Inverse folding.
């Protein structure tokens, strides 16, 4: 089976990990700060706080944003459940903005309409989590221009988009238009640390809060501890109810080594996406927008004349590991129990019914990609 996504590990990645195992700290050594600095250098962000998954990154981002019971957080239905769950962890209410059927990212006109209704009802969201679906950045300049007058904090779920640029050519993570950007280093993402994530920000106070929440809510920062503790080197204090979301040095060493390959990975993904784009032009399907600045996490097509289930199962039988991204979050039983209904976000639902993700990852060979194209063409003929 040709998988839909797969990590690529090089010998230098392996030696980076074994070096840590043989001589370093396994956790809380120098690898995590070095990885954080490398993420800042790459993206241009002022601060990076590494954590043990993209999901924990989303959680601490919400906590640092002050999201709590009584608040509302908006995101899109076309994402992994973690994009919404993070607000629920904080006790907040979640609501969704439908997607643009063309980009499959948040629809800015739906956002404008919903914001005016929310303002009239005095229910403006505390934060909005936008998702750069498949690695193609949302138009953050346009979104921040819409949300700024309402004082809404913007969080980018950039789990798909490390290595991408926004339409103004800012690197995703630079934080030009948002408060925080969350990354994931799960093996199917742009780079991997096995499990891992990070939150990027340009705000020193948010960075301190993120760090605090990722490690039990505890700080050893002398500036926060008060004068009476300055000669007590053992002293630390817990100010918030935090978590152990720390990344280990072993994982950070892998992530830091992988980051050196990021630009090559993204270039390889783009080259493969272009091959699909040309090869599929005559088939009865909608191709994704060929965004040259995307990180190309996914290559998903939308079937226009065929039953998705039949095509999915036929391709799996033929050894093509197709997948589907995403089951709209509001259709999951957990969110249905909260009162969400099918039909509420028609663009996300329509897209989901017809979506199919084709294999795309840096090590996908030309032969394997030709096989995917051949099998898909046969199944659709
Ligand atoms: C992968 C992913 C996450 C969660 O990241 P983990 O590292 O797996 O916890 C969150 N949001 C989106 C859009 C993702 O694709």
């Amino acid at each position: 089976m040709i998988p839909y996504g797969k990590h690529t590990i090089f010998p230098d990645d392996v030696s980076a990990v074994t070096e840590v195992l043989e001589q370093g700290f396994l956790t809380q050594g120098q690898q995590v700060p070095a990885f954080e600095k490398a993420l800042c250098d790459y993206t241009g962000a002022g601060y990076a706080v590494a954590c043990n998954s993209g999901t924990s990154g989303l959680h601490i981002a919400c906590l640092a944003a002050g999201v709590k019971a009584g608040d509302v957080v908006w995101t899109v239905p076309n994402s992994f459940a973690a994009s919404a769950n993070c607000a629920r962890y904080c006790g907040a209410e979640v609501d969704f903005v439908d997607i643009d059927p063309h980009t499959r990212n948040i629809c800015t006109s739906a956002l404008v309409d919903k914001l005016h209704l929310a303002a009239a009802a005095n229910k403006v969201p505390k934060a909005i989590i936008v998702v750069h679906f498949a690695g193609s950045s949302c138009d953050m300049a346009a979104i921040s221009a819409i949300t700024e007058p309402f004082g809404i904090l913007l969080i980018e779920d950039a789990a798909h988009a490390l290595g991408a640029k926004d339409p103004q050519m800012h690197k995703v993570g630079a934080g030009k238009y948002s408060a925080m950007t969350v990354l994931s280093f799960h093996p199917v993402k742009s780079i991997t640390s096995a499990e891992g994530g990070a939150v990027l920000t340009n705000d020193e106070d948010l960075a301190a809060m993120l760090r605090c929440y990722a490690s039990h809510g505890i700080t050893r920062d002398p500036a926060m501890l008060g004068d009476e503790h300055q000669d007590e080197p053992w002293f630390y204090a817990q100010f918030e109810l935090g978590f152990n979301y720390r990344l280990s040095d072993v994982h950070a060493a892998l992530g830091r080594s992988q980051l050196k390959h990021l630009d090559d990975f993204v270039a390889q993904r783009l080259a493969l996406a272009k091959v699909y784009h040309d090869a599929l032009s005559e088939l009865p399907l909608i191709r994704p927008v060929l965004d040259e600045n995307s990180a190309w996490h996914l290559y998903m097509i939308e079937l226009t004349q065929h039953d998705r289930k039949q095509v999915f199962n036929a391709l799996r039988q033929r050894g093509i590991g197709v997948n589907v991204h995403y089951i709209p979050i509001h259709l999951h039983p957990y969110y249905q129990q909260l009162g969400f209904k099918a039909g509420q976000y028609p663009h996300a639902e329509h897209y989901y019914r017809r979506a199919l993700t084709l294999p795309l990852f840096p090590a996908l060979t030309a032969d394997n990609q030709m096989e995917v194209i051949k099998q898909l063409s046969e199944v659709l003929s």
